[in-house]
Amino acid sequence: MAKSEPGVIYIGHLPHGFYENQLKGFFSQFGTVLKVRVARSIKTYRPKGYAFVMFANREVAEIACRAMDGYFMYNKILVCKMVPPEKVRPNMFRKFVKIPWKKLEKNRRALPLTEDRLKRLKRKQQKRNKELEAKLKRLGVSFTLP
């Protein structure tokens, strides 16, 4: 008996609350689910509304895809498509790493204010003030910023 290759399906229009654990549980009714990946925003970690599910068997993936395409779930109509084997990238199911944006910004702001950085900040502020004065002048308001 020949070893079957895994099959990957794309699921679009995911409803809110239907994420990794729910997808794995739901699609396991069709067969063995190897991997699940919900696409998420790097900045906010919120889901983008689509996911990929890898099944152990390509035929099972095709059956699941046909069964779930157009399926109405939580006021959304799911869109399911088979992903051709040549389009499955090795990093498609990589683990999502949440970037600690707040911590990075806190560290950036904690840096000492160097002379060069201070000059840059002053230039940016002066440029913003000039643009604002020009905008006010176009609107007919005579006002000068310090």
Descriptive overview:
By secondary structure, the protein is of the alpha+beta class. It has two domains: 81 residues, 2-Layer Sandwich (Alpha-Beta Plaits), CATH 3.30.70; 38 residues. Helix content is 36%, strand content 22%. It is built from four helices and six strands. Strands 2-3-1-6 form a four-stranded antiparallel beta sheet, covered by helices on one side. A two-stranded antiparallel ribbon has the order 4-5. The N and C termini lie far apart (82 Å).
Structural class: alpha+beta
The top level CATH class name of the largest domain: Alpha Beta
Helical segment tally? 4
**Order of strands in the sheet with most strands:** 2-3-1-6
Number of domains: 2
Query: Strand tally, please?
Result: 6
> What's the pLDDT, averaged over the residues?
91
In short:
The protein contains four helices and six strands, in the order βαββαβββαα.
Question: Which descriptors apply to this entry?
Answer:
146 residues; alpha+beta; Alpha-Beta Plaits; two-stranded antiparallel sheet; 4 helices; 36% helix
Secondary structure: elements and pairs:
Elements: E1 7-12, H1 20-27, E2 33-40, E3 47-55, H2 58-68, E4 72-73, E5 76-77, E6 79-83, H3 101-109, H4 115-138
Antiparallel strand pairs: 1-3, 1-6, 2-3, 4-5
